[in-house]
Amino acid sequence: MKITLLKDFEAKTTEGPRLLPAGRELDLAEEKARALIAAGIAEPADLPRPYLDRAGELVIPLNCPARFKWWAGGQSALDTLRELFEERAAIMEFDGGLPRDEAERRAAEITGYHPQPRKTKDTDP
Length: 125
Known about the structure:
By secondary structure, the chain is α+β, with helices and mostly antiparallel strands. The protein has helices at residues 30-38, 77-95, 100-111, and strands spanning 2-5, 9-13, 16-20, 25-27, 42-44, 51-52, 58-59.
């Protein structure tokens, strides 16, 4: 069963402990995968994710991972938009070669999420 780690996880291997980073996709035996899902360490990798439709509206599929379901105690819709913003900004910066500020500006246009300005030495009180 394919899962995605939600947080860093220290796996016990025959060669000793190994740290696996959050976001890593693994293909495990179903019993082990279900144990990590039940513990809140992972989620099934094949579930649909929230997305923005053609009109720019946030769509959260009913069969998406539980952490996106704000109506059932999951994270807020604003947090989900922040994740979509960060994902798009990272893609434009690292894969597209845009400077970070430009990538974030464009991601904000796409998602409608506008993060708080980062503090710099010049703006710190």
